[in-house]
Design a protein that fits this description.
Shape: globular
Strand content: under 5%
Largest sheet: none
Oligomer: single chain
Number of helices: 6
Number of strands: 0
Distance between the termini: 65 Å
Mean pLDDT: 85
């Protein structure tokens, strides 16, 4: 059953990347992430309440709190960096690069969680790295001319957060 949940998470993650890229065209990436983060909080705490898990919060040990808070800070940092990368690069190239996290996860799980690595896991991780390198170093596809350009002027390719007004003398 874990495979179904993992595949659904991957599919939803791909949709999130696509929607996020579309959403940050005219919004600074950190603001876009903050909007999504509020919704993440609402959904996650709503799930806790719906499942009746709120009383369990008092049973969380101090060490577990430290681990969860650290993971939360790193999750937010990772997402902010991913949003910034999406604001600059193509989703089809940024997403595979951020998914090298899978290889890092396998490595860190082996080191810190003492999970055993099989040759299949190592080969799969190597293939993932190979695929990412192939995508990242491939020549980017030329962008088609936008149909939104109805005023006859060329698009600058900048977004609101990238354009800054010229300083006045």
């Amino acid at each position: 059953m874990w495979v179904v949940f993992a595949l659904l998470a991957a599919l939803i993650s791909a949709v999130v990347v696509t929607l996020s890229k579309a959403g940050i065209r005219n919004v600074p990436p950190s603001l876009a992430f903050a909007v999504q983060a509020v919704l993440i909080i609402i959904v996650s705490w709503g799930t806790v309440l719906w499942q009746g898990l709120l009383p369990e919060i008092g049973r969380i040990e101090r060490k577990t709190w430290l681990i969860l808070v650290t993971a939360g800070i790193l999750t937010a940092t990772s997402s902010l960096l991913a949003f910034r990368a999406l604001s600059i690069g193509d989703a089809s190239r940024v997403s595979p690069m951020t998914n090298v996290a899978l290889v890092f996860s396998v490595t860190l799980a082996a080191i810190f969680l003492k999970e055993k690595l099989t040759w299949q896991v190592v080969l799969g991780a190597a293939l993932m790295v190979s695929g990412v390198l192939l995508i990242v170093f491939a020549k980017p596809a030329e962008k088609a001319e936008s149909s939104n350009n109805k005023n006859g002027r060329p698009e600058t390719g900048t977004t609101i957060h990238e354009s800054k007004p010229a300083a006045r003398a």
